[in-house]
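User: Hey, quick favor. My workstation is busy. Could you predict this chain's structure for me?
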Amino acid sequence: MLPLVYTFIFIFLLSTVKASSAWSTTPYSPAAVPLVVRSPYLSAWLPQGGGTALNGGWPNFWNGDILGWAGFVNVDGTSYNFLGVPAVADTSFGKSTQQSLIMTATKSEFVMTAGAVDLTITFLTPIEPGDIVNMSLPFAYMAMSVTPTDNNNHSVQVYTDISAEWLSGNDSMIVNWTTTVDSMIIHQSQLENQTLFADVADRIQQGSSYFAALNTSGTTYQTGRDIDVRAQFINHSVLANTLDTNFRGISDDWPVFALAHDFGSISSPSDTFVVAIGHARDPAVQYITANGDMQDRSSLFWSQYSTAADAISTFLQDYPNAVARAAAFDSKVLADASNNAFPPNYAPIVELSIRQAFGGVEYTISKDSSGAYNTSDVTAFVKEISSSEHISTVDVIMPMWPTLLYTNSTIGKMLLLPLLEYQASGQYPSQFACHDLGAAYPKATGWPTGGDVEMPIEETGNMLIMTLSYTQSTKDTSLVTTYYKLLQQWASYLKDNTLTPANQNSTDNFAGPLANQTNLAIKGIIALKAMAEMAAVVGDSTTSSSYNSTVTSYLQQWQELATAPASQHLVLNYGDPSSWGLTYNMYADKLLNTNIIPSSVYEMRKETSWYSSILNGSAWGVPLDTRHNYVLTGWEMWTAAFMTDSAVKDSFINFVHLYASNLLNSEPFGDWYDTVDGDTESGFKARPVVGAHLALLALPSTTSSSSTTTTATSTSSTSTSSSTSSKSSSATTSAALPTHVLVLTLAVAVLLGVFVPC
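Assistant: No problem, here it is.
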């Protein structure tokens, strides 16, 4: 094998080659740029694989559905397109030129040159884990401002619209809409025929889309056929303040909902025109209660606002403060992830993971018998996204757990509560923990006769580990004391089954079931240690001592069963010395600070030993195990977090960055990829599991957010298309990697011997 340094040379070559595209991208060019990533149903991305500019393609929903979203800027009477790729008959307009793209944990900001001005377009999705009410607001910002580049006066107007494609992926669906004009201009649109809790092809069949701005001087509006409304602005630099009342199908003359703003004649930076975009519904989630009744749960923000208009008004007026809070959050994330203990490529991965992680979560509240909101009953639910439609999948919450710990552990509690309450009620028939709360988000209706995707040791271990982790993080013992009997039931199952696991699935169920999995067994053993700790929390010293003894015995036996001859490495499954796999579940031992795994086991993964030899033969990363060539980025990060050698740790992180920035596809970040060709595996994209990338930040020795004690119901910190279709870090990298450069770089890597077979 060639030295590990050659792998780093390959990574360096591939990640620093400059492309021919004109704009710069910070921190790197992802497969898809997050524009609005607020919830499972408010998720807009710019496909970026080919180096696409903001005006080089239509924004997409996370599943690839086109979202009609167009933008124009008029400068001294000349129109330039800056968003989407609309074709508008009988008009003349140019294309603005993208100069830069900067992404942080909360925003994506483009600078486009149009004539003699630079237009800045900021897409801000506030991430405020310390204020759950604000986190529950299903809105995001689009902000536009202009700066002349020649110090001369220029007359400048901006325009943006959305189509009814934001409501459904089925373009034949009939929609209707209203526009309210007072202190605000609010375009509201919805499906004419709605079905509660119906998620069809990943799009919710209820609720309304909103597109709104403050009704300031120079702001105009219009609804109508896409080419008519866009032509009005292109030709006249202003909208007509008229409304189309001919409700129709999404693709029937493509109705759009438009806003425009006149900055006037300016020679210096303009003011900022802010638009709110959102999708809200009520109720949001159906949940099976402890007595078996179906409960309609509302989005938390409804408890603070009587109407959507009230919420939008506060949201728009809060923009300057939201920007300041976002900047503070972004700065903290960047500073923490730029710790000297981490390689430079770590911070960019963290920054582009946070919006995606929270983009799968919704925060809910129940009502009492009088119809009043029950502020003591606030829970959260997560959609698995792309790999299935399941709601509150335990092995989705577990990988994203590091992000919850880093930002606000209370959100973790909110996600665990529905799972704990449901299973404590006795409605789930198995002795082990369930996989999820239902097959079809947003219906958390449980599994009264079983039938969920069984991962007995996996999910049972996850629940025990996360419950202790939350308790350690917050010193709140309520989960342990309230659900102690259920936790004991789960621990009893693990005691009987975890040392030599039966032929069952782990979270990596796409790899198929396997008996005697080393990685699965150690998860269960760590979970038993968690049970011992939780028993001590409630003063049950007898149970605590018993489980501690079990852990000691099991761990010794596990080492003997799981270690290959000559103690070179851990095997994938007992009895197969030629097998190996990423034993990423050892991360939980570090996360809980239980330290039950001897240092000798971790040392088997030093640079001079096992993983070093595997890394030397890797092109895009270390495979998950010997059965396949693929790997998941979250498990690479979990493994990196407990590496005792910094070079090996850094290589895991650098491989994730290399894959994330390779531009071989154009979908929202996919966490499952092939380590031979660097391509994304199908069906895994936009998933909240990328919260696993914060694994290193969540460890007890690293800096974490101080927002964990904020109450769930706190209020805001302020007063609180074509003519036929709308289808219609510290490092700065190039916007795209041309194919010929990629091929050349890979060829160099081959010559260096990077692609030595494992």
